[in-house]
Amino acid sequence: MLVAIDYNQGFNDQPGNTTKPRTSIGADWVLGTIAVRSGFSFGGIDNFNWGFGLGLDFGILALNFWNSGYGKFNFFQFSQESFVRF
What we know:
Blueprint: E1 2-8, E2 22-31, E3 34-43, E4 47-57, E5 62-67, E6 73-78
Antiparallel strand pairs: 1-2, 2-3, 3-4, 4-5, 5-6
């Protein structure tokens, strides 16, 4: 299991940036070819976010499914990290 903690704070209030700090924590639990991921963020523009994801790694192809906490569900993110280069 991998656990990560992150702190973000911008230097200005330009579009897409904020000086309001955000703290995040997430975990990635790998069970063979299946990975379960979840995380929370507090502060920033959104105040609170929760995300959940599921990954399937088949060696040359990795599929990732996730929900960012806003009701959007994203399908089929293809990862180049798992591709074998010849």
